[in-house]
Amino acid sequence: MSVKLKGIAASNGISIATAYVLTEPNLKFDRISNANCKNEKLRFSKALEKSKQDLALIKKHAEENMGEEEAQVFEAHIAILNDPEFIGTIENEIDNDKVNSEQALSDVSNKFISIFEAMDDNEYMKGRAADVRDVCKRVLSHLLGVSLPTPSLIDKESIIVSHDLTPSDTAQLNKNYVKGFITDIGGRTSHSAIMSRTLEIPAVVGSEDATSKIKNGDTVIIDGINGMAIVNPNEDDVEKFQKAKRQFENRLKEWAKLKDAPSLSLNGEQFTIGANIGTPDDVKSVIDNGGEAVGLMRSEFLYMDSNELPTEDEQFEAYKKVVSGMNGKQVVIRTMDIGGDKHLPYLPLPEEMNPFLGYRAIRISLDRQEIFRTQLRALIRASEFGKLAIMFPMIATVDEFKQAKKIFEEEKSKLIEQMVPVGANIEVGMMMEIPAAAMIADKLAKYVDFFSIGTNDLIQYSFAADRGNERVSYLYQPYNPSLLRLIKNTIKYAHKEGKWVGMCGEMAGDQVAVPILMGMGLDEFSMSATSILQTRSLMRKLDTKKLSELANSALNAETNDDVIKLVKEFTQHNK
Ligand code: PEP
Ligand code: MG
């Protein structure tokens, strides 16, 4: 019998494939203290061989899908399994203590992990601790005969089903085989949802119980437009699914005709529609979807794709690739926004009660200035190859912006002194994603070159509702007049100072919000590349003179739903 699941629509598109359930394997075992050493060493060496075979295959897939550099982490894992010291210590423990290999493996791994983690000032060695942990898990799974789900090894069309997906899990998905995913938890603006849009993989998040309702091998339809899934669909469901898929594809064809058209309103007002990207490889999709700019490059993905802090040169190459790939069109790169739900295994952050309210983004950059300065130098050097703008995430106060800007100026002057070529006009702006900052937009506007409104965070901080928690997702209210007023305040004061305002939060591509934002005079809309053409199509049907009235009514409405109603009525009257 078919089962329907509801969730949050995270990435457009509809697909059908076989479920691949990602669950944490049970790796519990008992200690044996009178083991047969010969047998144990034989079991251990077999598990070791199987693990090496797995890793060679994972590495090959990673090289094919993500490139050699990203695959190096698996080379490091293989090296651990070939390390005579590591293996020898485990075998000695089996011999000396007569314990089972599971026990010896985990004792020795834990010893190595603690040694590496204790090297406080050595980020590289801390990264090795994570490697040992991963490798130990793999060998243990073979010893226990438990299968370890490995999404990067998927080689047939599948729908991933999991409790949650981390951004790095998502980055490993091969879109040739992964046709969609569904998770129990998460919201539309959690980073795995954002990445699914970049990868153009249909996704539903926050379904609450997908992992208990779906089994490996079930057939699953993912409807990422309406936020639902059907498990083991009947003929009727499949027919409906095929019809919806055809309709969606026809709409895509219509929108594709606007690839080279300007982003003009019906009455000829010019806007810019840009894209949000994570890595240099995403530039292709921006161009293919008719993007007029990169409104946000989340530079932290560069850090997350690496096993250690990327060097200045590595970063320079990546930024240069984006800036030159956009061929003179503006590229806004945000400095590292680590913390919250984004972690670096080699840069452990203190445990915090509220990571989204804690040590995050610009707060880390201003504290760990060596990391910040390296990034700024790489960015400034890349500015020579196109039109680069830099912005700082999570600015809360005028002082924070001034401090960050001062460090930027210092690094720029040093590079100029060293005769390094730098671009003529690097704009420096900030993300507007903290309500306190939006309230003093008039003050901040004097110092910045531009604002880019990050509604994903601005909404979570305004409503005190975790953006990734499906239980409070009803408070994700982009049209609520309180939020619209913060946005209006930002635009009004930026314009007063002659500065431009963009929006790179998910709201910029939201078809209900776009008419209101146009009416408020937002200059640049930056979104998932796949939303660009749909938004351009909508913009071209709207008259901004009428939209400013709509925006005023929205600002004076009472609730989120009232505003949705206003926009619906407006669209009906202006068809
Ligand atoms: C935002 O907060 O709206 C934003 C664009 O940044 P991120 O989603 O990466 O936090
Ligand atoms: Mg943000």
Element layout with pairings:
Blueprint: E1 3-6, E2 8-11, E3 14-22, H1 37-66, H2 68-81, H3 84-97, H4 101-117, H5 123-144, E4 158-162, H6 167-171, E5 178-183, H7 191-198, E6 203-205, H8 210-213, E7 219-223, E8 228-231, H9 235-256, E9 272-277, H10 283-288, E10 294-298, H11 300-304, H12 312-325, E11 330-334, H13 362-367, H14 369-382, E12 387-392, H15 398-417, E13 427-432, H16 435-439, H17 441-444, E14 450-453, H18 455-462, H19 481-496, E15 500-503, H20 513-520, E16 524-527, H21 532-539, H22 544-555, H23 560-573
Parallel strand pairs: 3-4, 4-5, 5-6, 9-10, 9-16, 10-11, 11-12, 12-13, 13-14, 14-15, 15-16
Antiparallel strand pairs: 1-8, 2-6, 3-7, 7-8
Helix pairs in contact: 1-2, 1-5, 2-5, 3-4, 4-5, 12-14, 14-15, 20-22
The chain binds phosphoenolpyruvate and magnesium ion.
The site of phosphoenolpyruvate has 10 residues, from β10 and α18.
Structure, explained:
The chain has 23 helices and 16 strands. The chain has an eight-stranded mixed sheet. The longest helix has 30 residues. Phosphoenolpyruvate binds next to strand 10 and helix 18. Magnesium ion binds next to helix 18.
N-to-C CA distance: 42 Å
Sum up the overall morphology in one term: globular
Q: Which structural category fits the helices and strands?
A: alpha/beta
Strand content: 5-15%
Neighbour order of strands in the largest sheet? 1-8-7-3-4-5-6-2
Bound molecules: phosphoenolpyruvate, magnesium ion
